[in-house]
Amino acid sequence: MIDHILTLLIFFPALAAMLGFVVTKDSIRAYGIAVAGIEFLLSLWLWYAYDPMVSGMQFMEAAPLIPAFGINYLLGVDGISLFIIILSTFFTLIGIASLTEKRRIKDLIITLLFLEMTMVGVFAALDAIVFYVFWEFSLVPMLYIIGAWGGPLRIYASVKFFLYTFTGSLVMLVGMLFMAYFYYQATGQWSFAILEWYRLILPENFQLWLFVAFFLGFAIKVPMFPFHTWLPYAHGQAPTIGSVILAAILLKMGTYAFVRFSLPLFPDASVFFMIPIAVIAIIMIIYTAMVAYAQEDIKQVVAYSSISHMGVIILGTFALNVEGVSGSVFLMLAHGVVSGALFLLVGVIYDRRHTKLMSEFGGLASVMPRYATIFGIMMMASVGLPLTINFVGEFLSLLGFYKQSHMLTLTAGTAIIVGAIYMLSAYKKAFFGNVTNEENKKLKDINKTELVGLIPLTIVAIWLGVYPKPILEPINNSVESVIQLMHDKAQSAEAKVRIPDLSGKNGTNTMQEAY
Amino acid sequence: MELYLYIALFAPLVGSLYSSLFARSPKSQQVGIIASGLLFTSFVSSTILLTYVMGGHTVHTEMMTWIATGDLYIPFGFVVDQVSVVMMMVVTIVSTVVHVYSIGYMDHDKGFNRFFAWLSAFVFSMMVLVMSDNFAGLFIGWEGVGLCSWGLIGFWYHKESATWAANEAFIMNRIADLGMLIGIFLVYWNVGSLQYDVVFSEIGNLQPVIITWIGIFLFIGAMGKSAQFPLHTWLADAMEGPTPVSALIHAATMVTAGVYLVVRANPIYDLIPNVGIFIASLGAFVALFAASMALVNRDMKRIIAYSTLSQLGYMFVAAGLGAYWVALFHLMAHAFFKALLFLGAGNVMHAMHDELDPFKMGGLRKVMKGTFVMMTLASVALAGIYPFAGFFSKDLILEVGFVEHHYVIYTVLLLTAGLTAFYSFRLVALIFHGEERYKLFGIHPHEAYKFMLVAMSPLLVLAIIAGSFKMTYFQLVMNLLPATQYHVHDHTTFWIMTIGTQLFVIAAILFAYKKYSNWSSVPDGSSAMEKSFFYKLLWNQYYIPKMYEEIFAKPYAELSRIAWKQIDLKIVDATVDAIANGIYKTGENTRDIQNGNLSTMLRWMVVGLVVLSILAVAFTVGYNVVGA
Amino acid sequence: MAITLTHYLVLASVLFVIGLIGVMRRKNLLMLFFATEILLNATNIAFAAISHYIGDLSGQMFAFFIIAIAASEVAIGLGLLIVWYKRTGKIDLDQMNSMRG
Amino acid sequence: MLEPIHVALGSLNIATLAPMLIAVVGALSILIIDLAKGGLHKSLYVMIALLFLLLDLGALVDFGGLFLKNGTILGFFDVMLMDGIAIMSQIIIVAGSMLFIPLALTSKRFHEYDYPEYFALFLFMIAGFQFMVATDNLIMIFIGLETASLALYTLIALHNRSKSFEAAVKYFTMGALAAGFYAFGSMILYAISGSVEMNQIATILAEDHYSNIGYVLLSMAFMIAAFGFKLSMVPFHTWTPDVYEGSSAALAGYMSIVPKIAAFVVAMRLFEFLVHSGVAWLQVILYIGVVVTMTASNIWALVQSDVKRMLAYSSISHAGFVMAAVLIGTTQSNTGLFLYWALFSFTNLGAFTMIWVNRQKNLLPGQSSDHPYEKFSGMVKTMPMGAVMMGLFMLSLAGIPPFGLFWGKMYMIGSAVTSGYTVLALIMALNSAIAGYYYLKLIVFMFMKEPMVGYNQFYFMNASLSLKTIIGIAAVGTIFAVFAVNPLLKVITLFVYNSGY
User: Which chain C residue lies closest to D369 (C-alpha atoms)?
Assistant: First the structure.
């Protein structure tokens, strides 16, 4: 069973979702929790069985799918994907457990389980087309969640979300086909296997074009400036559960894909585009932080803050050294936990008041002290306070990029300032001051259902901030082999310099051993 | 000894966590007592460690790995050496006192339990800050104290001004923290480690330019935390917090973290004397600058806050000039008397129902004897009168300036010493002497609880006698810090300087007394002095907060609004929508091609054929021409 | 003047163009059918002529088939026309636009 | 005088006619049965038609085996040409017809299915298409084309609505014009080469080094116009939406699949030798045609308010997409064409069946067409399974993996990429994105809006067990397409490659 655990992880929720059609409405929630719980335990088992000392792919599975065109069902996890998978199962569980939605809950839970399938699939896929299949299919459940349970502008928001990402990924698909064609030219065989592609050393000008093609797909998903405008709408209209999953997992697909595809496939292009992308990342960081500051709706603040944080992740990814990339992978997890929790928190207040405007609130700290506390912790995590989960990632990402550019890192570092500005001012508007609105005086503090989701997140946010090692170590090992691979493949002199050579280091696997 | 280290470190954390369990319950005395007790434990452990360290040992321990990736290895490592143990003593003493004091001070506050949670958490952060054996750990504490400072300044969160001040403090500190972070990055990429011992032993191998940058960026971090110009405005606003907080955080401990950083990083700053001179100059400037603002202020706590700022300037002068041990010594002495001063001010506030304007007080010495004595003595110490603590530490800094031939700095500091004495006793005179102006406002002042006064007494004792530890202290820290003695070798000069300074200070005190001890009315802004340009300048803090508001805060808000409404919605998003709408509109506009009329349809077919034929002919002609 | 293949082809082309113009201009469904017949017959002439001039039978075969198909077309077309006329009482093309866009 | 012709019966290889003859015999037998005893239920005719189509399919599969063993089979004065693509396309034609003919088994009575002639015509039409693809003789193509078309006009008109007559008349008239184009184009080819067989024409032209390039191009202009009409390439597409709207959904779905594959095969035969001989003009024209067809029809589909009309434009777009294969002209692209069409037929079968199931007798007040989007509003609440199915087909049409059409799209774009048509590949990809909008629109209506009063009664009005079965088959085919792609690819590649394309 352990040999096929990834297949199990991917298709168990989908199967369960199908069976879920039979379950009656009043017990579907319990069913959903049970399924998501089992799935989560399975993913923990995966972690348990994972050997953190091995940097390459583990639990690999292979089955022919369309061998005539080089498409095979290839799965595997390494330190980079392992934890995002666990994060996906974790958030699905938490999302379902703390679900407060009343309308058509059966459809919602079934949709969520399908979504879980696609999320796990994306991160476990080792074949570009299989990856693409899950990547695209994940749009569908999300579309439905936003469109059916969302706010007044839900249709606009969901369609925008769908079409925007869909367009980007189609360009990416062309890139993938190109990549396969190059592989075909080089070896005489079709293959979409990512690990096979890793072996390919492409001429630099091809790398540039392919990088751009892949970039478009990823950048829209992340979303990077200026392709980000779908996100505020999606978040603004999505129901709580939708925002949580979207922010915590779906956005990570883009950044994950950068690490999985762009870096190892196109090392020279990565170096070539490093500075432009860093500039975009910095724009994301500062500009969206400013936009977040101007928001009137607290959910939009969190939404824009997501973009801002994704900027740091991108920056870390394009640091192209172990510190930066490990940091960005870690920050993906961190941001998942923190932004997911923040969206859950916003959902709490939305459920009570059906508004998210900060001007409607004020003084919540005295009416809902427990809520204010958890919100405060998560806000401080989001701001990147040391000993919270975000800090580790942000610190490493910035540290990594500092190696590449002092000035840009200095500029990007303003993240810690602007981030504090919008977060603290939002917190102040909503929680501090006197209770001015009569309706707020009777608000009930956070209840048990809501705590079920928030307490574990709070614990994780602090636990991993204090002791990130169990996660950082496997990430580090896998990232090291990616970086070494990039160094070995790099052709231009600049790339050779920019990407560190780790081969001298003890315990670092060479390319052949790792893959 | 590691056990004591951990006790000293974690006892406050335990206290904080314990208190936070009760954060939402109604006030419960035991919370305060237990938290104070735990802090006392921490103090005792620190003392044990002190004796151990005085025996010539140090304790260095690594609790566990924190971050390890690539070449980066950051453990939770702690070191108790000659410098950190001094800081530990200061922190634990002052915080124990403040904790006990707070039991009384926060007596009637709804957030009593919450207060202790925050306060103990602060102490824990501060302990991490001083005990860490690497820059990253320092940064943990650095941010941790920032967080607690935020929570405590904004403790009365329903007050707009308090929460505003809390955010201001946090954000200002963040600006500086960025500098610190960059400094840490520089250290890592050039040394490959963040451990103090590694960094300090290898720093000499680096290029001077890089060392300079490291020094500058680390100092930027220090500037924020220690509220040096131009990041000073938050400190005065931070007085919105409860007074014990001001005593502990914004006088004795947190704000001195910057000084501690420079002292700790002395091997770096030793190599870059130019930066040192800059630090010293800035320190001298801030000393004078802050003191000048204190001259006219009418808010008791703010006056003390400016005085703190001014004293921090002194410390930076010493540190910048390489007299690290002197800086640390003044830090310690200052912690005692300044905390005392603040706690005394807290008593006054309690008595006056949170009235802060000393002009509305007067004659309080009759009802508040204990407080009066303590505050007067603390002010004396602050003014640097022999044989109080201030004399030994502050005058030493003047000497340092003199000995190092920085006469401008020396002059500035001397002048500031006079100003310090003046505004301190202006305050004392206005509060405790003269007519009982508070009666106009119908206030019935009363002395604070006995145990609060008792709790303050250790500080009083220390404020008086701390100077006598000078040689013991010097013996202790010279293991770690450059052991330069600063003596004016010419005896005549030495005596002239010392006595001259004393006389100057005493004159300032007397002047203050003369001017303010018989004050009878509450100024209403009509006097000639109040209308003068300088008064207004000082009164408005050189218009700096206003300038920040106009130059940074408002434009930032405005820019943010523009970024959202104009750029994000009207340009970026509108472009995307325009593309989509453009495609849709094209469809709308061209759908009449299919107008359902068969004739039109047939014509389209013929048109298509004709176009194709024409193209065929054209191509053929072109083909033949080219072919021929 | 001998009549060459070119003459036939020119005739065929002219007829074809006439047919095309008819197709474009006529609003009467019946006239439209006539126009399409002209089109096909123009082709027939050309096929027959070419077939004759190059001595190959397949052109004539093609012509025969075209005739046959044209006949079937007329049959179907008239059938449709009659039904349409029965339903609407008109055979004007401009009336025929219930579907558009 | 012409030589008398001597023919040996054996050399005729009459067997090559067998598949078409089976269909013709089927049609005739339906007519005879009706003569013998009238008033029989339509289900009998459906089954008879299915039986004959099954026989037809069997014969084709048999030919397939033969082809793989012996290569291309010629017969009947070398008029019949049973090569790989002929067999393959016939299989798609027959199989597609078999899937569509049971749509006659609705629960409501429909006028046209009461006529046995309907089924006879249906089989004649199939025979016509089969003739069309199984030859490279221009005469034969013409005959096949017209047989099929004339039958189709009638079938449309049999729907017996005023709109269906209008549609039939429009289609007929334009078809007649297109026939004229085709005849004239063939005439020019005949004039310059003296032959009506494409491979001979190709040989003669090549030997001649295209000295008459002007006439060749002129004839191609006519041919493009003629087949542009059949394939509904812009600007010859104008009949498509009207005809789709006018005819019954079942027939519209059928028209989106079967006639087009026949036309594609002919277009492949006709244009590819020119494309391969490097006639840049044709490449350019086809390029423009493909891009304009894809894009324009997509844009028009966006603004439709009727689902069936939207699907009509969408199938124009799909046709344009696939036409790219003819332009690219490699084995891979031609394989892609068949793969795409096989997958497309399943999905479109499902989509049009769903529309068919929604058929209503009379329009509601204010309803402008048979299938406005509003009709599907909130379907998920009243008919969850139906909505999920329809959503599935829409997603597949939009090219969302892992559903059927994605694999076709991927392979087509892949073939464009492989042949260096990068820009084309990008345009194809972006068009898929535009197309996403209108498919999504239906999903939005079904899943995200509240049901509209009055419309919701129609959701499954027309459903019968056989229709549901067909939807089920289409759904299974769409969902599990991924497992069929590999075998399909292998077989198609084999057939296409061995036919020399």
Answer: C99
